[in-house]
Amino acid sequence: MANGRKKFNLGKKFLGFVRGLLVYFLIASAALIFFYQVSGGPTTEGNQVPISQIISDIKDNKVSKLTVEGDKLTADLKSGDQKEFAHKEAGESIYKILESSGLDPKTVTIEIKDLSIQQAWIGVLSAILPILLLVGLMFFLFSNAREGAQGIFNFAQSKARLFTKDQPQTKFSDVAGSDESKKELMEIVYFLKNPNKYKEIGARIPKGVLLVGPPGCGKTLLSKALAGEAGVPFFSIAGSEFMEMLVGVGAARVRDMFTNAKKSSPSIIFIDEIESIGRLRGGSMMGGHDEREQTLNQILVEMDGFTPNVHVIIIGATNRPDLLDPALIRPGRFDRRVVLSFPDIEERKQIIKLHMSGKPFTKDVDVEKIARRTVGFSGADLANMLNEAAILAARENKKQIEPRDLEEAATKVKMGPQRKRMQTDKDRKLAAYHEAGHAIVGHFLPNVDPVHRITIVSRGMSGGHTMFPPTEDRSNETKSRLLEQISTAIGGRAAEEIKFSDISTGASNDLEVASSIARDMVMEYGMSNLGPMNIKPQAMFGMWRGEEGSPISETMQSKIDSEVKKIIDTAHRQALDVIRKNKVKFEKVAQALLDKETLESEEFEKIVGKKKV
Prior knowledge:
- The protein is α/β, with parallel strands linked by helices.
- The strands form 5 sheets. Strands 6-8-9-10-7-11 form a 6-stranded mixed beta sheet.
- Residues about 1-10, about 40-45, about 145-155, about 285-290 and about 540-550 have low confidence and may be disordered.
- The protein has 21 helices and 18 strands.
């Protein structure tokens, strides 16, 4: 296949060379004819005079020689090296001109230069050039049409990028964390390297592996590492690259990709964002003629059509497994599902150490502390954080990266860069008391994580923020902790009511967070008076499941709204009580924010004391 493409590229280059040569020849020919038609021959230097002047000079015996070049006359004067030039009528003899003027042609030396060959060439070019121009135009149009036709047929060719073992390889050693996932994928390497070992015991090579996990957790990186460990050709393509306006193109590309992969077997095909083409069938308005469904059908056929001796493994990556068609993810097609999640503290340490290599850090940078600070960060977030820290240090002309740079980079990754906007004193005061309310409520409620930082410096769309990063990795949330999170979110609104006897629009995002948690408690977690039941409707393709809209009745929806309101009202009263009981400390925190703009956890605890857990 590579040799065929190489020959095609060489032929294309030769065709372009011939086309360019023809264009240059036509331009040169046209310029030559234009030159002779306009100038009447080669250019010369001298005085341009009427023909009557030359005849008068011959009569006065001032001309030593008369040269005739077609219709151009050149008179060499006896005085010095001067010359005169004139033009006669085309086809008229110089001898007749002299005789009609009463001169004997023998009185002057006449030299006639033959321009018949030159004129003949001009005549030939004048006759052939239009034909050449027409032929060149036709050649140009047909060659473009042929390339266009080839382009149409190229629609059916796979756009998968091929990575061979000759290119730089990613190994599992280059992937920090995800130890369980690497063990699962390492078995695929053993299958590809030593298939007979498994055949002898009756084991079948998996046809597909589905990588499932949130964005940034290393699905693409792990698939590249799998190909690097196995040392086999790796075809990489995104699900959206199969789709085109022309119906049937996606299916043709699938066939072409699988054909190439089978020729290169053992090999790996990696399809990123597989949900783009693997969505549940039947949700489109176009029915079975939908281009996406035809593409999915072709993938199903190709995966089922594998012969036992074809060692091609499909790796699909998605962060929306709930959207995939059951026929695609059943055993026999995607035999394995590898679930990736956000790294825990030990995995974060490994990832941080990996991305710290090659960067200078001060001695007080603590990997353990950074790992605990970054609960909920993905591998991509951690890599971005360390890169941002290096950029911040370089911007300030530092030679080493300091903990302060890492802290600022972590905040920037999650909340965006600082915005130094002008604020009125009233806005600063409102922001200070609002953030102090969040901090006080969260600090005095036992199940909320400790305050890490409070600031009234704008980031993104926020005028300030209070950070409560998790101190440990949690897989579950309790009802009491969720209720206290709602109270902490409403703490800013409660602070405004107590201090200003008024409320502002600054709490809009806080109310959105609080309402979302409360609604999930009622509808999804069964943490309300409605009992242990999940009544959250399952949406599909922007529509409710079922034929008659939402499965929740109006009566049940009214009960849900009532329970959500009870939870938020209870949390609101709790936030007001906490702030009123600690009003002196609340005022001190707000004043400290107005003075310093930012309070770290140590500074905050000096004002309010250590958190009681």
